[in-house]
Amino acid sequence: MKILIINGPNLNLLGTRQPEIYGSKTFDSYFSELQFGFQEVELAKYQSNVEGELINKLQEAQEQEYDGIILNPGAYTHTSLAIADAVSSIKTAVVEVHISNVMDREQIRHTSLISKNAVGTISGFGLNGYKLAIQSFLNTREAN
């Protein structure tokens, strides 16, 4: 199984940005833990602060035949029709992940333009949301 993790704006600052919300671990160190914990899965990661680059990566992921995409679109969750359209335009299954509980934050964060096009959304479990998303892909594969 091949899974691509795509992280959006400001997620390159994990470990230093608002650790009371996002924790103190960098995504690179967490990604190493994911690779160790899911050795049966070919994991790749990508991060960009640029909306168009995230859209390009979503489209490329389909071409590269990933079995699933874990997408944390960051603040673009609430503002980007273009990313929502990209998710709805590809056949690769997408699980939307948020580190914080977005429903416990500012009102604008309560609306996701991405969710209706994703197979599921995981929010509020910290970095463990990525593990849960990988497990959801594995469970789906086992069920089929």
UniProtKB/TrEMBL annotation:
PROSITE patterns named in the record: DEHYDROQUINASE_II (PS01029)
Pathway: Metabolic intermediate biosynthesis; chorismate biosynthesis; chorismate from D-erythrose 4-phosphate and phosphoenolpyruvate: step 3/7
Reported function: Catalyzes a trans-dehydration via an enolate intermediate.
Pfam families referenced in this protein's UniProt entry, alphabetically: DHquinase_II
NCBIfam families: aroQ, PRK05395.1-2, PRK05395.1-3, PRK05395.1-4
GO BP terms, alphabetized: amino acid biosynthetic process; aromatic amino acid family biosynthetic process; chorismate biosynthetic process; quinate catabolic process
UniProt GO molecular function: 3-dehydroquinate dehydratase activity
Record text on subunit structure and interactions: Homododecamer.
Gene3D superfamilies per UniProt: Dehydroquinase, class II
Keywords: Amino-acid biosynthesis, Aromatic amino acid biosynthesis, Lyase
CDD domains, per database record: DHQase_II
Binding residue positions for substrate: N72, H78, D85, I99, S100, R109
Active-site residues, record numbering mapped to chain: Y22, H98
Catalysed reactions listed for this entry: 3-dehydroquinate = 3-dehydroshikimate + H2O
Family affiliation: Belongs to the type-II 3-dehydroquinase family.
Protein EC: 4.2.1.10
Family matches, as InterPro entries: DHquinase_II (IPR001874), DHquinase_II_CS (IPR018509), DHquinase_II_sf (IPR036441)
Protein name per Swiss-Prot or TrEMBL: 3-dehydroquinate dehydratase
Annotated positions for site Transition state stabilizer: R17
Coiled-coil segments on the chain, per record: none
Top-level taxon: Bacteria
UniProt source species: Nonlabens marinus S1-08
